[in-house]
Amino acid sequence: MLAEVNPSGSIDRFAPIATGAATGLVSLWANVPAGFPIGAAAISATASIFAATIGQRGVALHLGSAALGILAGTGLRVATSPAALEPGTTRSGGFLWVGKLRNEAYSSLPHSALVYAPPGFDPSRPFAVLVYFRGWGSCVTVLAGAEPARCSPGGRSRTPSDLMGQVDRSGANLLLVMPEWPIERDSSDPGALAQEGAFRAMLDEVMVDVLSPAFGRPVRLDGASKVVLAAHSGGYRPLADALSRGGLPRRDDVLLLDAFYAGDAAFLAHARRGGRLATLYTSGATERHSRSLADALGVPVLTAGAPLTEAQWRQPVIVAKTMIDHSRIPLGTVQSWLQTRDLPPR
Question: 174: closest CA among 253, 276, 266, 240?
């Protein structure tokens, strides 16, 4: 009797491996939280066990291979994904601190703020301070960097703003301070930092407890030649609070990056006191509030959407439309603004 020949046998043997590899690749490249593929792996494994108990060995083998492939892909994706800056990390040539402060927005957060001084920063010479108020759905440790990263394990990849790189390239003797609020949340609530004098207290603590020991000499906020404030998107509210009741010694320049959703009184008062103000808008609410401010101050609105020239950046009040995508407006724009603020050089 001739033996029965199955010409597709070798294919059948490798099909489960192919199934696992394919599902692993899906997990590797899908931009979803890690919990989703892990859950899918658990369901697949459970279904595999059930299929085996009812005698469906082929189905069980495929489902089991899929579960293993999902887990392998998820592990590889997490291992190779760019990571956000972690507390205690350092940056070559500069000073970087991510940690807890007594004066903070929320005590429940893993860190209160990010502080960065570029290579060559010298607190014994005139220096400036940039306080950057981030928008919704991200975290300071991602926005400070130059690569997409996750704010927390299992979170989705977030768009960076390269703020440290922009400070580096500005050439200014400049400190970057980024307060933190609820991470990856649609919230503009500065928590305890909304209290009278809270922003001043936070910055004083940064100077005395973080920077002075790091540089081996007293660093004081009152010693700053300029304090400039910038906000992107939902960062408008903490910036408005800092202007109106933050207790800051100086509020020289304000930059709103598609962030003028409210706070008209605070921003208008700042401009009328002689503070420089720039608001870049896209459409909708930020356009309405920006145009209203321009009308109140009697300044023109730049509607072309083209990048601002150096001469335009140097105007006391700037109201301008931008064609840049909302999430990418800070990229490069912060550097252009800094380089026209007459900040002390490194």
Answer: 253
DSSP at 82: P
Q: Are strands 128-133 and 113-117 parallel, antiparallel or unpaired?
A: unpaired
Per residue, the 3-state secondary structure of 174-234, as one string, reads EEEEEECCCCCCCCCCCHHHHCCCHHHHHHHHHHHHHHHHHHCCCCCHHHCCEEEEEEEHH
What angle in degrees, to the nearest 10, is found between the helix axes of 35-53 and 57-80? 160
Q: Residue type for 6, please?
A: N
The CATH class of the 95-338 domain is alpha beta
Q: What is the pTM of this model?
A: 0.77
Copy the structure tokens of residue 42. 């658990």
Cβ distance 74 to 44 under 8 Å? no
* pLDDT tens sequence across 189-225: 999 999 999 999 999 999 999 999 999 999 999 999 9
Compute the distance between CA of residue 58 and CA of residue 206 in angstroms, rounded to an integer.
Answer: 62
**Contact indicator for 133, 143 with CB cutoff of 8 Å:** no
- Is 188 in contact with 234 (CB distance < 8 Å)? yes
**Closest among 208, 195, 209, 210 to 105, alpha carbons compared:** 195
Say which amino acid occupies 176.
L
State CA 113 to chain mean position distance.
12
30-73 pLDDT tens trace: 444 444 555 666 677 676 676 578 877 766 676 666 556 655 55
Q: Hey, what are 54's tokens? A: 């009812």
CA distances from 300 to 48, 248, 296, 319 (A): 67, 29, 11, 7
Half-sphere exposure of 164 (CA within 13 A, CB side): 25
Task: Determine the Cα–Cα distance for residues 48 and 63; give it in Å rounded to an integer.
Answer: 5
Domain boundaries, the chain: 14-80, 95-338
User: Backbone phi, then psi, for 303, in 5-degree steps?
Assistant: -105, 0
Q: Position of tokens 């003797």?
A: 173
